[in-house]
Write a structure and sequence with these properties.
The protein is an alpha/beta fold. It contains 22 helices and twelve strands. The C terminus is likely disordered.
Amino acid sequence: MSEAQFTRQVLAFNEWKRDIIREAVRFRNWLNEHHLMTDDLKEQIEEALHQLISDQITVAFAGEFSRGKTELINALFFSQYGRRVLPSTIGRTTMCPTELFYDRRLDKSYIRLLPVETRASNVSIDSFKRLPDKWKHIDLDPNDPDAMSKAFSEVAATKIVTGDVAAKFGFDVDALEPAHDGRFSIPAWRHALISFRHPLLQEGLNIVDTPGLNALGYEPELTLSLLPEAQAIIFMLSADTGVTATDLEIWKEHISHLGGRLHKGLFVVINKIDLVWDDIEGEAHVQRSIEKIRKLSSQQLGVEPDKVIALSAKMGLRAKMDRDGDLLARSCLDQLEDLIAGGIIAEKERLLQATLVRSLFGLIQDARDALGNRVDAMREQRTALADNIADSQSELVALTRRTKQEQAFFQRAQIVLKSGRALIETRLPVLLSCVGAERLREHYGVAKTSLERSWTAGGVNEAIDQFFAALEQDLQKLDSEAGNMAREIQKFYTDCRAEGLIGDMKVPEFSAKEQLEALEQLHSQSGRYQLRLTRLASGQGKEGVRFFNALAEKARDIYVSAGRNAQHWCKDALNPVIQKAVARRNLLGEQMQQLSKLSAAGQTGQQRLAEAERMLGDLERQFAILDNSLQVLKRPAPQIEVNRIVTLD
């Protein structure tokens, strides 16, 4: 796959998203125009739009230093500049975690660098992101490659400090590079944010470039947040070393357990295959050597062979800069691009179709069905007028009588609908109290107090275990309370069915299983740091507080998402019934207005028929708008269409 083709696939994905956004906006406007918008429906549509607009694809690169992570990023995304944009030379060039993205809000390119001294505080990186004045800011000019390279080199800056200072910042002195006079070299920056005006970044692609083992082990947010939240992780090895002890340590401690949560998005790249290119032995020998390395790495890491790619980032970058197709093919860079497009983008499309697109589809379909009833009624009126033009007034009186009878039926049904709204108002707060903010603060405070009292191995383990046990107990209570509420909703369904408002409907299932599994995963990850926390008695207390804050912040996100899902579940269970009734009532009101117009004095039967034809034409045009929106939402996303996967009926 060429770089242009890869770019086209990302652009196609975003064009598909824009089509969905356009139809959602069109539907929102249609609801407002026909006075069918409710507060709950507006909230649902606005949230879907927000998620679609802010949706991003994040690809993280991980591995020990000198594996070529930054060189691969240059080859994949920056070859058009004819040079290495990101610093990529022998040694440790990525000294701090680096996020590449495009800041749509500011709409400009820049670098922001968080000083390493902030590691002496207990403030998380996410918290510092909300404090821009704490970062060093460098403006970037994408049209000046020389200035960009100079600015990017600042990301790799280091400073010389004593062992005590390095330890204060949370570094393992034994793992640092010695400088002189008994001092050590450490990164000058704790974290780097790079907003860059690049076509793929502007389309929502985010890149995370991580340093080696030392940073992964001592900056908890990398393994608790940045890596788990990526849609894909590309784990880097080097062909000249194979899987080393440190590679295996990074893999086991920080990467391998993420495979289940990332679905298809965990890949292994063996870089620097150009080191085994040997013209004397011949190409067949070279390919056998590369295949041997690939299979051995697959076995050592326990990864499916088709997710292990052997390539040369250096030669791929050179081939792209020189437009050398043969060298590009030999570098095998296009194989990784195929995986990214075919795996990551397709999985992202599948998730969006299974959630947001399906939800919007259901809302529009409900509105179209209600409008379809109105079209049928108008066709009946038109036919009745056409069959009895001579006595159209009598026919209109009969139609008006039937419409008023139906309106009276819906007025009686309002009593049932009020019970549904009362159910939301009274039971939803009880449901959400199971995972309320106050409970979370209480759990955090208890755990933090327990940690401060005992930094022994047993004390640390017990405090963190109790923290997660409390959160898990709340989620289990949420599940139980949702079960009680589901029975009440089912009774509401029964009452609605008795009034003829709905047919047979089952209450959607609710489960906090996903959040419970996420908490269990986070708990397991935290265990990798608990042994390190027991060293706090030697003066590293701030590091422990910083770790626990990062851990609690990630747990909070999971905890809050459970409450948010419960709220959506409750409204999703009741809103379709309420919305259908409201839509039918409002459309009946429109029907009465139209019948009133048709009954205006002084009109002939032929004039009334012509007016009915005009009204029917307008309704049919509105129906066609909604039907067209449904057809757009039915279309498979680009990568799903390529694979001929049907995901939406």
